[in-house]
Amino acid sequence: MELIINLMINGLATGMLVFLLAAGLTLIFGLMDVLNFAHGGFFAWGAFSGVWIYTSTGSFLVSIIGAMIVGLILGAFTEKIIIKPVYGNHIQQILITLGLMLVLSELLKVVWGPNQIVAKAPALLQGSWQLGDVIIIKYRAFIIFIGLLVFAIVQFILKNTRIGLIVRAGVMDKEMVQSLGINIKKIFMLVFMVGSAMAALGGALLAPYSGVVYAEMGMEFAILAFIVVVIGGMGSFPGSLFAAMLVGLSGSFMAYFVPDLSLAVNMLLMAIVLIFRPQGLFKVKG
């Protein structure tokens, strides 16, 4: 029983990291209809900048905030310079954001070098708790808590605030929102920046979880994020959370019981969903 619980905790922790990346993609696609393949680059930059700030300041909280600020800046630049000229054209969006993804990965090597960088969790989050025969690693529990907290905050904003109402209305009918005198372009940039900051937060949290950061990590996790978005339903925020947990848990159990299928299980899940429910598990109204 303790093995099952430990595997579930590992899977949920991984799932929450993927959720933070996929949730930003979901927000961006749901409102802006933008396929942003550079999103993994924001994730990687959040990881590297978080490690660098933590090493420089010794404060994990400052490193998290700093990584999110980096994500906000990258998001604002990308939306304004890269995405704005290709609104409405998915082929151009894929090509230009894939190019940006490669540029961001290479810039990481320029700034921090081509080698892996070791990352450690703060002393407060090191170690584990033991409940009977079950060992709960503190940092993994912390990641699960942060993931659920982010989900709750964003859900509250979307459901109970004016800006959330505008975003939800924009998902259904952008032209109607624009006709009411609301500057939908500013809303677009805000959503893009928030989504980018969430990706950077995920990267900053991943660094101590994995123990190392490397330039190619953005592309690897971006693939998982797109799988989650497809499974959960394009534009569905709760769908992203459910799909991320499903992907994390399936990967964790497969890696232990059937290691040879651990890499293929997520693709298999996506294929099954696309065959039987092409719109995803959670369909977005409108």
Describe the fold and architecture.
The chain has helices spanning about 1-30, 40-55, 60-85, 90-110, 140-160, 160-170, 175-180, 185-210, 215-230, 235-255, 265-275, and strands at about 115-120, 130, 135, 210-215. With about 290 residues, it is mostly helical. It has one domain (about 1-275): ABC transporter involved in vitamin B12 uptake, BtuC. The strands form two sheets. The protein has a two-stranded antiparallel ribbon with strand order 1-4. A hairpin with a 2-residue loop joins strand 2 and strand 3. Helix 1 packs across helix 9 and helix 9 (about 215-230) runs parallel beside helix 11 (about 265-275). The longest helix has about 30 residues, at about 1-30.
Q: Please give the CATH architecture.
A: Orthogonal Bundle
The portion of residues assigned to helices is: over 70%
**CATH class descriptor name:** Mainly Alpha
Principal-axis shape equals: globular
Radius of gyration: 19 Å
Instruction: Give the strand content.
Output: under 5%
Order of helices and strands: HHHHEEEHHHHEHHH
Total count of helical runs of at least 4 residues: 11
For the termini, the CA-CA separation is 43 Å
Count of structural domains: 1
Structural class: mainly alpha
Number of separate strands: 4
Low-confidence stretches: none
The biggest beta sheet is recorded as: 2 strands, antiparallel
Average pLDDT metric: 86
- Fill in the CATH topology: ABC transporter involved in vitamin B12 uptake, BtuC
Main-sheet strand order equals 1-4
